[in-house]
Amino acid sequence: MGNCCGGHNLTNANFQIASYDLIYQDPSKFDFALLNKKALQIQKFFRGYEVRKKMKKQQTKQLAQTSDESFIYQYRSNQKENVNNKQNVLKFNIDGQQHIPVFNVKEVNISSKYSDKIKIVLDKLDPFNFDQDSQFAEYPFSKPLLIGDVIYEGQWNNCQKHGRGRQFWIDGSYYEGYWFNNCQHGKGRLLLAQGDIYEGDWKNDKVHGFGTYIHQNGAKYQGYWENDKQHGKGKEFWPDGATFEGDYKNGQKNGFGILREADGSVYEGEFQENRFEGHGDYMIVGGKRYVGQYKNNKMHGKGTFYWKDGKKYEGDYVNGVKQGYGVLFYPDGRIFKGYWQNGKQHGIGIYIGKSKVEKEGEWIDGKRVRWIRKGGEFTNIES
């Protein structure tokens, strides 16, 4: 997520929130295709890799150490100048090893164009908890240093950001937390220029471990990450009140999860690549419910659909509609057993009326065209 040597490409950050525009239609035509829009895709990469490579090369060159005579001369000149100015920008450890870089860096004051906007955001947050200071107690701090297009203030080790520090990007983004060998590592908080916030664990400049990502519109993911992607157990919260809790793999919902929609509908079941896939139980606001198999967000395979009035269908689904063999139970006791196509009775079937007498007939496109075998009192069949 981050970039070693300060090369964050934050301009490409992309956190998409899907809209909720599912309209519930007639159950026989119930289509789950629109549910794919519900997937919260925080998992879009935050980094632009070409910019990362360019900036890394630039910063590595800027911070490169050297052991030639020019370095010794530069070091001694800086020492003399710093003593005269009662400053000590360059510091060494006990064995004479350089910590804070002197080449291609400039000590600066942090401009209000950086700090004012960030302060407004930080004032709304709890203070960041720097709880790992003891691990870096031996490393020196620098004043704010301009390094390429970023400003860094914090601890160093061998010309690398190491320990507690904060960094400002030219676009107004800001990071505060811990560094290790020039990478964001450990606990840290990143404020993106467009208003998004991530706070949590980092590893080798990537979001890795437990953390919370908050979008500027209030949507939030809280859970585990691996290599900049949601991975493991996590929770999502949308501004309209919808939530998801479940398993993630490689940045997508994979495994078991519970989706609670803003209108009160609840899906509990299996996901694959952000889709309803496998077995699930979908309780739809208004009293409808489907329990069974899904494929690509649609009812597909064996399942049972319940209506509020007591009607029930048990049987086969294909791409979201009744297709194959199924049994329809009416609230008044009538039953249809037979074949379906495109959500309608189609083919040979058995109709059992209120009198409990079976009638065998043929249906085409939902309409009975003939009786094959009759018994008892004739009863009109609802298509």
From TrEMBL:
<dbReference type="InterPro" id="IPR003409">
    <property type="entry name" value="MORN"/>
</dbReference>
<dbReference type="InterPro" id="IPR000048">
    <property type="entry name" value="IQ_motif_EF-hand-BS"/>
</dbReference>
<dbReference type="Pfam" id="PF02493">
    <property type="entry name" value="MORN"/>
</dbReference>
<keyword id="KW-0677">Repeat</keyword>
<protein>
    <recommendedName>
        <fullName>MORN repeat protein</fullName>
    </recommendedName>
</protein>
